[in-house]
Model the fold of this input.
Amino acid sequence: MNFIVIDKLTNQEADIEKIALSEDWAKRLIYCDMEGFAIQEDGSLILCDECGQFAYCPSNRFKIINRTHWRFRCFLKNLCLSVLTICKRR
Done:
């Protein structure tokens, strides 16, 4: 599954290096050598570094979005902004 992880604290795509540096639950990960997020078979979200270590993400902290859906949503948002801009000019 190709997905994007949104940090609910910022409503932006999760900054994995910043999370590894600042979050207690991810402190043992190597912040400068991060791999990314993975979803386990039971649906748990984990954050992984490239050294093979991982940390379980707190439940309800992140939102997982299918990448295809995310691209379509961004396209629609940009399209709406373009239409609004054109309408304001008239």
Remarks:
- The beta strands are 3-7, 12-13, 34-39, 45-49, 54-56, 62-66.
- The mean pLDDT is 82.
- Residues 8 and 61 are 6 Å apart (CA to CA).
- The two ends are 44 Å apart (CA to CA).
